[in-house]
Amino acid sequence: MKKLAISQALAALASARVLECDHASRGFHLSVAVAPLELPAAAKILDQQGFFIEAITGVDWLGEQAAPGPTVADQAEHQPPLPSEDSFEVVYDFNHFAKLCRVALRTRMPRSRPEIPTISAIYPGANWHERETHDFFGIIFSDHPDLSPLLLPEDADFHPLCKDYKP
Amino acid sequence: MSLFPEIIRIMAYVVGVLAFVGLNAAFLVWLERKVAGHIQRRIGPKEVGPFGVLQPVADGIKLISKQLVVPAQADSLLFRLSPVLTMTLAVTVFVVLPFGPSLVARDINIGLLLIFAFLSINVLALFIGGWGSNNKYAVVSAIRAVSQNVAYEVPMLIIVITMVMITSSMNLNVIVSQQGNLLQWHIFPWNGSILSPLAFLIFFVCTLAETNRAPFDLGEAESELVAGFHTEYSGMGFGLFFLGEYASVFVGCALASILFLGGWQCPLGIMPGVHWMLIKTYLLVFVVIWVRWTFPRTTLYGLLNLSWKVLVPFSLVILLVTAAQLKMPWPF
Amino acid sequence: MSDLAVDPSCETFVLNMGPQHPATHGALRIKLVLDGEYIVEAEPVLGYIHRMHEKMGENRSYLAFMPNTGRLDYLSALSYNHGYVSVVERAAGIAIPERAEYLRVITVELNRISSHLLWLGAFVLDLGGFTPLLYTMDDREQLLDLLESVTGSRLTYCYFRFGGLYNDVDDNFGPGARAFIKRMRRRLPMYHKLISKNVIFRQRLEGIAPVSAEMCRKYGATGPVARGSGIAYDVRKHEPYSVYPEFNFDIPVYEQGDSMARYLIRMDEIEQSLRIVEQGLDKLPPGPIMAVKVPKIIKPPKGDYYMAVEAARGSFGIRLVSDGSATPYRLKLRSPCLSNLSLFGEAARGLLLPDAVAFFGSLDLVIPDIDR
User: Fold this and answer.
1) Which residues is A109 bridged to in the sheet?
2) Contact B332/B194 with Cβ under 8 angstroms?
3) Of A131, B61, B183, C111, whose CB neighbour count within 10 A is largest?
């Protein structure tokens, strides 16, 4: 079964925490948290198993240290050592064309140093999604071929989806 | 022959030809919009005048009242010359078209040659217009128009040579007078060449391509090149291209009816005259419009392949077969 | 730009197709590096109608975001409505009455047909055939009248509510929908005769711009684009939601991956949607259209939720992150058109300009959905 195979393969990564979720109530089967540096390795595993990339979502967890309110429960305990400051989260949604198995691949980085490796070399489709995430949050995807604004104006220097963004 | 009547005659024909070209364009605009409307299950123009017949007049007034904008980077001379040249050439061709037994401005012996000479220069007008616009779409379109016209003139001229071999004349009136009734029309295989129907088909397809009409309207392909060579033209600049296009559609169909369908001759041999010429030509024009609103556009390579790989070989076969047939009539 | 594109000796030139161009159907710009008419490089430039719907979602209540979902892909607005209400219902644990689910499926499928009809007309227009547009508009008009009588709007629908629907259908809807099905089944063979069998049309589509299954996977292309490349992926079957498992319908799949395959997929999908609507009308149960216990102010529990639905152009997904308050903490809208367009640059390389226009049309893109 696809779910078992992929969860075993991903669990082999050093930093990965794999959590099975109830698809009916959450909409995905596996929630996998990895450290930013192991992201390309995780993407490569998913690629080898024939998954396709559906979306990349950035989330700004501003204020989670002061008040742990917004932080979503199951991630907090399955996160590789949480940054000791407010963080950005990036969620990569993968799915499989033949066997239904939705994987949400999560990674976190501190808000002050928002830099994670790109997976656009593995999934060319991630290129635009990463550019969009860079537009909205200012997260830098290192080694990305072109991080110029995709949806925002070409001279945009603001990141509207950051929780501290003031227009 | 004194000089004075000759001048009157020239004046009358200039006015007549110009008036005819204008009226023809107006009528074709109206016809095209009405036919397109009915093909598309709507009714087309109906507000301006009875059945909307005055719509082209309204269109014309609108076009004339608009400013002719010459883009800053355009080659002003070429840009202005191109529409005028298109129009001039289209009008000149009308000089040798026989509308009736005696209704022809200049009944000259090489009328057919003159028409093709002028129609070939037409492509130059499109080219300098596209080039002079200093617009990438216009240049691409101009290049397309040239390669298309060159490709289609070859089979067209081969067919015309075939017809000249059959009729032994380049005088259009002579060609028409050979086709006294329906059975003598050159389209039928027993008159001249056994491949005449095919020749007619090739000639008609080439006419569509020569006049840049759909499905061969690659020059103005609006979904690819915005408006092609006349992208930058406004007002009457565009209007002249429009007039020129309709004039050449008429000339193409008139030639087809002269060469193959007996021109001004009546199918039954009674009451020949200008009305037959107009009926036949406008029927062909109707087919041209019908084709335009039915078919999608071809691509340039599809078009060139059709010309060089299908039409040229077939027209050469027609030429050879006809030549052989004319030299040894026995087996036929 | 690649080396080839900037090398002056190659005599290439840059042509900006758009943002105002007849073939891009909206404000999209494609930067084309052309060698003659061959495309050396094609780079879509997005964002001309970017409205930041995702930020809007963070600033208003769950219900107040509802109308926004009809303004992403305005041609299949009901599918987007459906995706949004489903993800909120999933998060808040709201159960929906069966009648409401059936009506959702029926209206969504009618909307899919109207979307495909408009695409068909616009696609043939891209290829230079003007007339079919008027025919499909004629058919679509019947559908819009029908949907207007139910939803109250003709294009940017906002018909669904959390827990059900805004209102029930009237007595004329059933006969009206059946009459449309009958009409459409008569019209489809006519379209096939006029368009699918036309020699010029076939010549322009067959074998042009093949997209491989692997390319679809790498770029995340879904919907008719993926199904035209031999991938039998349809969220309605693959990850059934609503009452789709109750219906008997097929997923058309073509292996060729060319523009013709993408065209045929959508033509077949119209047929399949007609089947679904017909079955839905037959099975439509009586009962309420609104769940009883729906809180006035929706506050889903903390957590993140994902929901994908099959919109007319592919898999539309929403990732909702809730912090337990009355407004979403983060709302990610996964647009199928963005992913489908992202493969354009690679697939269009080496095509001729007119073929690229045909390829672009066969991707069936709605620009406001890409730019969001």
Assistant:
1) A88
2) yes
3) C111
Domains in chain C, start-ordered, CATH in brackets? Answer: 51-370 (1.10.645.10)
Cβ count within 10 A of residue C286:
6
Q: What does residue C306 show for φ and ψ, rounded to 5 degrees?
A: -130, 140
**Window 301-340 of C, Cβ < 8 Å to A:** 302-308, 315, 317, 319, 321, 323-324, 329-330, 332, 334, 338-339
DSSP 8-class letter at C71: T
State the Rg of chain B over Cα: 20
Residue B8 contacts by C-beta under 8 Å, 6 or more apart in sequence?
none
Most B CBs within 10 Å, among C16, C39, C203, C263, to test the B interface: C203
B190-207 pLDDT, tens digit per residue, is 777 778 888 888 888 888
Q: What is the CA radius of gyration of chain A?
A: 16
Let me know if chains A and B touch, i.e. at least 3 Cβ pairs under 8 angstroms: no
Helices marked H in chain B — which ranges?
3-39, 55-64, 76-93, 111-132, 136-167, 172-177, 196-210, 222-225, 235-260, 274-292, 300-305, 312-327
Compute the distance between CA of residue B174 and CA of residue B167 in angstroms, rounded to an integer.
8
What's the CA gap between C192 and C205, in Å, rounded?
14
Distance from CA of A8 to the nearest CA of C (A): 22
Contact C15, B138 (CB under 8 A): no
Please name which of A127, A140, A136, A129 lies closest in space to residue A160, comparing C-alpha atoms: A136
Identity of the residue numbered B27: F
Cβ-contact B262, B179 below 8 angstroms: yes
Write down the pLDDT at residue C113. 92
Return d(Cα B202, Cα B161) in angstroms, integer.
13
Which 8-state DSSP code applies to residue A109?
Answer: E
ipTM attached to this prediction: 0.84
Task: In whole angstroms, give the CA distance from residue A50 to residue A57.
Answer: 21
Token pair recorded at residue C178: 């059946």
Residues B195, B317: contact at Cβ < 8 Å? yes
- C170-209 core/surface letters (b: 16 or more CB in 10 A; e: else): eeebeebbeebbeebeebbeebeebbbebebbebbbeebb
Cross-chain Cβ contact C220/A161 below 8 Å:
no
Query: How many CA atoms are closer than 13 Å to the CA of C198, on its beta-carbon side?
Result: 24
Terminal Cα distance for chain C, rounded = 26
- Spatial neighbors of C271 by CB under 8 A, at least 6 apart, are C188
d(CA C341, CA B86): 41
Answer whether A102 sits within 8 Å of C306, measured CB to CB.
yes
Rounded to 5 degrees, φ, ψ at A45 are -60, -45
User: What are the extents of the domains in chain B?
Assistant: 68-327
Grouping H, G, I as helix, E, B as strand and the rest as coil, residue C129 is coil
Quickly tell me which residue has 């197709």 as its tokens. Answer: C17
Neighbours of chain A (3+ CB pairs under 8 A): C
Chain C partners within 8 Å of A136 (Cβ): 54
**Among chain A residues, CA nearest to C28:** A151
What is the count of residue pairs from B and C with beta carbons less than 8 Å apart? 76
Write out the two tokens for C129. Answer: 């055939």
Q: How far is CA C65 from CA B13, C50, C153, C325, in A?
A: 72, 17, 17, 15
User: Does A68 contact chain C (CB < 8 Å)?
Assistant: no
The pLDDT tens digits for B280-306 are: 888 999 998 888 888 888 888 888 888
Candidates C41, C239, C332, partner chain A, best to mutate (most A CBs within 10 A): C332
Q: Give the model confidence (pLDDT) of C63-103 as tens digits.
A: 889 888 888 888 888 999 999 999 998 888 888 888 888 99
